[in-house]
Each structure stands twice: as structure tokens, then as C-alpha cells.
Amino acid sequence: TKEVNRSLPGVVSQRYKVFDENQSPKIFDVDEERARVQEEELEVSGHDPYEGISLKRGTTGVFEIEDLVKLLQKERGRDILVCRVPPELKYVDYLCITTALSVRHMRGLAEFVRKVYKIKKLPGDNIPKIEGVNCKDWIAMDMGNIALHIFSAQSRRVYDLESLWAVGPDFDPECNKPVDPLLVMMEQHTNHLSG
To answer: Could you give the 3-state DSSP secondary structure of residue 70?
Structure first.
């Protein structure tokens, strides 16, 4: 076999170069390029947002309470409280309360919990709505078996859900305020007119 002369004539060699397959960039199709970019981003960031979080659906609900607490701890939720709700209330199994560091952190926590919920859920499970997403003090999510409340530090002190759920309405000052006599008279008058 004869070696092919790969040199170009004088003027052409100054403007062009001989194609060499080994020195040209590899061109990927769209799907390959997206996969490659995602891999590079993961390698560059070195951070897996789901590391240490169980992505399997729980048995009593999409989240088991232990999994939710681990997630909140990982995402820097503060003063996490879990309260078992009596079954006779037919509400949820657990009430989970945490404090966020800022409004942005509060929204980010709620959105991340919802994102993990979407990964864990089965096709028949409803995706929880983030209640109070535009509120600066309190965000709540009903996840079926768990009610999650994310507070600002100030609002958590004001609403004091821990005490309300721990001692019940008998010891809640708001529930035990004296009844306004004018309100009682108006209710009696309304009942008299409708009866």
C-alpha cells in the first residue's frame, strides 16, 4: 500500500488544514447532548440534592414521618416538632412543625418537600397543595397522613400550635375568652327571627 500524500499546496495550506478525525470535536444528537450536560453538571456541582433521602414511598402514606424529619433536618429546618394526632379526630396521623430561617427558606423547604413527594408518590396519590405560598409567615401542606407547618420564628411564637395540640382547647386562652354579651344577644335575636 502506498502512503497518501496529505500535504496541501502552498497557498491552500495557509488557509485550510487537512481533516483529522482524531482532532475534530464529537457532535452528539440532542438526547446524547442533554445527558452529557446533565452528567457534567452533576460532576461539577458534586451535590446530589436527594442524597440521604429515601425516595421510596412509605407504607402509611407517601412520606413516613421519620423520612420527612430527616429531609427537614437535611434542608436546615429548625426546631422540628412532631405531634401524634389522636385517631378519633380523623385528621392526620402526625402534625409536623418546623421553623424556617427566612421567607425564601420557607418557600424553598415547602417546594423541596413537594418535589420529593412527587418522586415518591404512586400514580393514585394526590400531590399536596402548598397553602400560603405567598404568605411571609406560615406555609402548610396536607400530605394525607402528615400535616406539615413551616413557620417564620415570630409566627411560630404567635400561633403556638405546639401548646394548642399538646394541651387541647380547654387550656387555650383564645378558645376560653369571655363571650361578648352583644354577640350572644345578636345570636338569640337571629334564632328568634328564624324560628
So the answer is: helix
C-alpha cell at 164: 394548642
CATH class of 65-171: alpha beta
106-133: average pLDDT: 91
Q: Is 122 helix (H, G, I), strand (E, B) or coil?
A: coil
In whole angstroms, how far apart are CA 31 and each of 25, 38, 112, 124?
17, 11, 27, 30
Question: What pLDDT digit, counting tens, does each position of 78-94 carry?
Answer: 999 998 888 888 889 99
**CA gap 51, 69 in Å, rounded:** 15
pTM above 0.70, yes or no: no
Contacts of 6 (CB under 8 A, 6+ apart): 18
Domain limits, the chain: 65-171
Q: Which residue has the higher pLDDT, 18 or 107?
A: 107
Task: Characterize 14-26 residue by residue with b for buried, 16 or more Cβ atoms within 10 angstroms of its Cβ, and e for exposed.
Answer: eeeeeeeeeeeee
Per-residue exposure over 121-160, b if at least 16 CB sit within 10 Å of its own CB, e if not: beeeeeebebebeeeebbbbbebbbbbbbbbbeebbeeee
Q: Is 138 helix (H, G, I), strand (E, B) or coil?
A: strand
Residue 134 near residue 104 (C-beta atoms within 8 A): no
